[in-house]
Amino acid sequence: MTKLTTLFSIATAVLSASIHAEEVTVAVANNFYRPMQAIAQDFKQVTGDDVVLSTGSTGQLYAQIVNGAPFDVFLAADTKRPAKLEESGLATGRFTYAQGRLVLWSPNKELLKGSEKVLLEPQVKHIAMANPKLAPYGLAAQQVMEKLGIYSELGSKFVLGKGLNPTYQFVVTGNADVGFLAMSQVYKDGQFAEGSHWEVPADLYEPIKQDAVVLNKAKDAPATQRLIQYLNSDRAKTLISSFGYL
Fold this sequence. Notes:
It is a single chain. This protein has nine helices and twelve strands. With 246 residues, the chain is an alpha/beta fold.
């Protein structure tokens, strides 16, 4: 097949998909919102389908789905909630789409020197983290500090966000000196955002495996099926890894 023929075939496939373009509504955990924006853009270029995103903590989104929120796909930050949706007959097709990494980050270039020890210093007055009861990354942050034996000492410094987006905002607005965040929030294409950071060793917290499910009402929708196929493709995996996911 010639190069010209190949390009023609791709263009024809995209045009054909665009003629039958549909919309997929995705509930996405805070940590994966930025990667999912990039995925939605690329997915539209490939298929012509639109992806409408709604984000929040995994716990919040799960509660919305249980109460009838009209989502087609749920991208959680854990494995527990997607499994519960399957068990209750609300969803199907569960698979792991990413494994997250936890970082401690500050916009202050001088604050973190690749270590957690600064958390105990008096200049760190507020530490942002997602609510461990709602967000898996918040639970991971708690596990880290418990393993280091400093969790109880730091209790008065915690500023809890309902999810990772509010947690990130606490840090960038100066309402917290440092924050436990998803690596994807401050990392893109091999580079961290300006500031200072500590990549938390993976043996300090349980693996953050992130599962996706298709809500039953949308399981037969062609656009939903195309999105799931895309998320399992090498193209999507390359894009996801560029945000620091394993």
